[in-house]
Design goal:
The protein is of the alpha/beta class. The chain is built from 13 helices and 13 strands. It is globular.
């Protein structure tokens, strides 16, 4: 396939006109036709050298991916249908409470098994609060932040530079595509702008390094008032930054936390994309879901969108990957074709997801309407011994401040043979298992904070400690009731090392040798 970009106008008005014209011609033709009848050594560095533009990640255009299923990936149930009454459900509730304000809305959990995280009324409040920091930023502008797959011209560029066929998604996504094609990103559309905040082989740490950082430079360059949204995709290169994939995870957590918080402080709503499978390195693939669990947890804590790319690609032959096992591959006819045949390819699915999340955010921020019902799962409990937080499903994530822990009952976990002073505040989480489960539990914190994770039996006691660690527990558990205690360490000077932590629990991959 010739990857050269057609000589099409790059001005947004022309791009929108071209897209609409292409669709209308296709539609008329269709009517006419229808009228007829884990490593011990440092993980090797990714071979990203020279993977710019359409190179490297476009290898899939040379190989055809055969689907293992007849069903194209269909994240449409996550998109949500319009419901004008939904946005007003929480309005004027004070009339039923004698003038008292309604209770605060509970933020939804971000469950596994779905492509798009929920956007409920509580999420709307969080998104609106972020945007209030830069209200003049154009609503139709987004920036792109990432590495090789972000700079590849098969990611989003083609919505502005090549013929587009949204197929069955035209009515659902066409208006949003037209809306964002009108975004003026420095004489281009946001789709085909060459972002300053993405480079081949880079990590989340690179994106926030320097003065200005690449992200700060891109926000300033894209428009005098900045951008309202940012599509963020890191993880694969970050996995390579430690002696093991486990040891690289704290750096990823810290850098992603700072990246997301920096965007939020600038009034930019970040969208966090999870990473796809790593068939280039079998040990790395066993850790993909752990990195995704952390990314999901960081997004959930801030109530910003999370897009599970791996979940969407699972039904595809070869998981939508090119023959390097790392980068995506695209439909030879074009990566912005969203027909059933085209959606058997990785870049096409990614572009569908990108357009879907933009549509969901347009609805949330412009129409001020949620995309999901307010009966989405929320965290139950208060973290105390009497009412531990309920881990209702795996994967699970929670971010909070250990200083707010309601209990100080667990001090020295004798059952684990530990003499460490954990007399600071703790939060308890309850896990009920119906079947044997291999799992990985992680706690990640920041500099100056030391929160440890302890796996307890049904007694939730110090003597009932099964395993403990500063950061990571990997084990296989039989059916039963278990507790996790996230407890604050007290140093030799008697100072509690409390602060914010992110706790994640997930089922290990079936063939993971570390979870035994």
């Amino acid at each position: 396939m010739d990857d050269a970009t057609p000589s099409l106008p790059r001005v947004h008005d022309s791009a929108r006109t071209m897209r609409t014209a292409v669709f209308r011609v296709t539609f008329v033709l269709a009517l006419a036709v229808g009228g007829c009848a884990d490593d011990s050594e440092r993980p090797p560095a990714l071979d990203d050298d020279g993977l710019t533009g359409t190179e490297g990640a476009d290898e899939a255009g040379e190989t055809e991916a055969s689907s293992t299923t007849d069903t194209s990936p269909d994240p449409r149930p996550d998109l949500g249908a319009s419901d004008d009454s939904a946005a007003s459900e929480s309005e004027d509730e004070s009339s039923d409470t004698g003038g008292e304000p309604p209770p605060p809305l509970s933020p939804p959990l971000y469950p596994g098994g779905r492509v798009h995280s929920p956007i409920t009324a509580a999420t709307l409040e969080a998104l609106a609060a972020i945007r209030s920091a830069a209200p003049a930023a154009p609503e139709d502008l987004f920036i792109k932040v990432g590495a090789s797959s972000t700079v590849n011209t098969k990611t989003l560029y083609c919505f502005a530079t090549e013929p587009v066929d949204l197929g069955d998604y035209e009515a659902q996504l066409g208006p949003s595509l037209d809306f964002f094609l009108l975004g003026d990103a420095g004489e281009t559309t946001p789709f085909d702008r060459d972002t300053l905040a993405a480079e081949v082989g880079k990590t989340a740490g690179w994106a926030i390094d320097g003065d200005p950082s690449p992200v700060e430079a891109e926000i300033a360059a894209v428009h005098p008032e900045g951008s309202s949204l940012a599509l963020v995709h890191y993880g694969a290169n970050d996995m390579q930054q430690g002696l093991t994939y486990a040891s690289a995870l704290p750096g990823y957590h810290a850098n992603m936390s700072d990246l997301l918080d920096g965007l939020i402080d600038a009034g930019v709503v970040p969208v966090v994309f999870g990473i796809s499978r790593r068939l280039d390195q079998a040990p790395a693939d066993l850790w993909v879901q752990s990195y995704n669990a952390v990314a999901r947890g960081l997004a959930q804590a801030r109530q910003v969108p999370f897009v599970d790319l791996r979940e969407a690609l699972e039904p595809l032959g070869g998981y939508g990957l090119s023959n390097d096992g790392l980068h995506l591959e695209g439909f030879p006819g074009g990566a912005c074709l969203l027909t059933p045949e085209a959606l058997e390819h990785g870049y096409n699915v990614r572009n569908l997801l990108g357009l879907e999340v933009l549509a969901r955010l347009e609805r949330a921020l412009v129409d001020e309407a949620p995309s999901d019902p307010d009966d989405a799962s929320v965290l139950v409990g208060d973290g105390s011994f009497e009412d531990a937080f309920a881990i209702d499903a795996l994967p699970f994530a929670d971010t909070r401040d250990s200083n707010d822990g309601p209990g100080v009952f667990l001090d020295v976990y004798t059952g684990c043979g530990s003499s460490a002073d954990e007399s600071g505040p703790e939060h308890l989480y309850r896990l009920e298992l119906d079947t044997p489960t291999k799992l990985r539990a992680l706690v990640l914190d920041h500099s100056g904070v030391d929160v440890d994770v302890h796996l307890l039996d049904a007694s939730a006691s110090e003597a009932g400690c099964i395993l403990r660690d500063d950061r990571l527990i990997e084990t296989a558990l039989e059916p039963g009731t278990y507790y996790f205690s996230l407890d604050t360490y007290v140093n030799g000077e008697g100072v509690e090392q409390g602060g914010e932590y992110t706790f994640a629990v997930l089922a290990c991959e079936a063939n993971d040798p570390d979870c035994t």
